[in-house]
Structure formats: structure tokens, C-alpha cells
Amino acid sequence: MIVIKIGGSEGINYDLIADDLAALVKEGQPLVLVHGGSALTNQVAEQLGHPPKFVTSVSGYSSRRTDRRTLEIFEMVYCGQMNKGLVERLQRRGVNAIGLSGLDGQLWQGPRKDAIKIVENGKRLVLRDDYTGKVERVNSKLLLGLLDMGLLPVLTPPAVSYEGEAINVDGDRAAAATAAALQAETLIILSNVPGLLAKFPDESTLIRHIPAANIDQFMSVAEDRMKKKVMGAQEALAQGIGRVVFADGRVAHPIHRALAGEGTVIGK
């Protein structure tokens, strides 16, 4: 079993990824796909007059400020255009894909945060009207049933809270939780860079291997969104995943390349 997370940043080539996914399916490889959609969400939010806002937690992590209107735009893009666009790409290539959000069938479930502590202009603030949370439970029975039916699950945030509310969750960490629940051998995270870079954005500084035991040491190297990817990798490895690969989603055969060791391989 392989779980693949596709980022939502600009520059990712979804057609090349779909080509490679179709090839893997023909090879008989069980797959689950998780995707984002951040860049398109930002564009749509601007067009709808509700521009995106990002906040920084007291621990230094950046995330999308998710009020109720932002959540609605988020659902529109992630569950609509991005999810169904990927499903269509796969169907055109003969892959019987099915698109689901974490809301559907309580696929991803967890708590909504009561409050978020952020730093803004040097001051500490508390947000209490934010719809964010973390995936704690994965409906692996549902996913395994879909796989047994010959379907390729294409999954996207939001998740559902224990009270039944839609919550924005980090896609990389949701993919890690999914990989752990399915006891996947490998988690591949595709983005618009070749992997973890020692000196971002210099792609010649690619870090090719990180021992699982040393992953903490590389958190300080990760810039911005890559911090969440490193955190997701750390969580996946802690739950028994054999390896995590950060790989390039802009190139031909990106998944096969990742499986061959291209990118940043985190593991033994």
C-alpha cells in the first residue's frame, strides 16, 4: 500500500502525476491519493472578495485563518474543482477513481480547536471562531472497502469534528494519519520542489536522505509549508510507516522516481 499526497501549490503538474498513477494502477499497486488546493483557493478567495489570511502560531507554524466564509470557499475549491478535476483526469486514463472529502462517511475525524493562539505584530492573540482541527481517526474500513471494489480513493480536506462540523485540517498530516491507519509501506508527498532543501529555494541543496531517528534535527531547515510536511513525516514514521519521500510533482513519472529514491527519503 502506498499513500500519495499531492500539494496544492503552483507549478505542480497534475497531468504527469495522473499518468504515473494510472501506470501504477495497471501494475496492480494499491494506492490512496490525498490532495490539497491552496493556490487555487487563494485565487478564488480573492475573486470572491474574501482574500486569504494566514496566521502564525506561537510555536512558529503558519496556517490558513479559517472563518466560516473561508471554510465555504475552501470546500468549494478542494471538494469541487480540485477533487473532481483529479477524478476526471484519472477516469480519462482508465482509472476508476472516487473523490471524497474527510467529511464523507466520517472518513477523517478529530477535534475542532477551541482556541488558536497566534502571534500578530509581535502580540499574542487568541482566535475562538476558527474552524480548524486535527485528524485523530481514519475510517480505514471505508477505504479498504473502496479498494476492494477496485476504486482509487481521492481524498481531500475538510475533516469532520466529533460534533459534526466541517474543519480545515492540514493535508500532509491527514495523509500521514491515513498512511498509518492503512499500514502503508510508503508515504509520498509531492510538491513544487524536489524535496527538502538545505537552503531554500536553491534546488541544488537537496537533502537526499534523513535517518528517521534524526528527523527532529531537520525541522529548523524546513521553510514555511515544508515544516508541516516534516511534521507529517515524523508522525507517519512514529506510527510505523517504513519510509516517507518528499518528491517533485513537476516532472514525468514523479511517483516511480520517488519509489526509486529520488527526492528526500526519510527512513532507516
Oligomer: single chain
**Number of beta-strand segments:** 16
Judged by helices, strands and strand pairing, the structural class is alpha/beta
**CATH class wording:** Alpha Beta
Shape: globular
Radius of gyration, whole Å: 18 Å
Return the string of H and E elements: EHEHEEHEEEEEHEEEHEEHEHE
Topology at a glance:
Layout: E1 2-6, H1 14-26, E2 31-35, H2 38-47, E3 54-57, E4 62-64, H3 68-92, E5 97-101, E6 108-110, E7 116-120, E8 123-127, E9 137-138, H4 140-148, E10 152-156, E11 159-161, E12 166-167, H5 171-181, E13 186-191, E14 209-211, H6 225-238, E15 243-248, H7 254-259, E16 264-267
Parallel strand pairs: 1-2, 1-13, 2-10, 5-10, 6-11, 13-15, 14-16
Antiparallel strand pairs: 3-4, 3-7, 6-9, 7-8, 11-12, 15-16
Overview of the molecule:
The structure is a single chain. This protein is 33% helix and 25% strand. The chain has 268 residues and is α/β, with parallel strands linked by helices. It has one domain: Acetylglutamate kinase-like (Carbamate kinase), CATH 3.40.1160.10. The strands form 3 sheets. It has an 8-stranded mixed β-sheet with strand order 5-10-2-1-13-15-16-14, sandwiched between helices. It has a 4-stranded antiparallel β-sheet with strand order 4-3-7-8, with no helix packed on it. The protein is globular and about 50 Å long. The two termini are 18 Å apart. The relative contact order is 0.18.
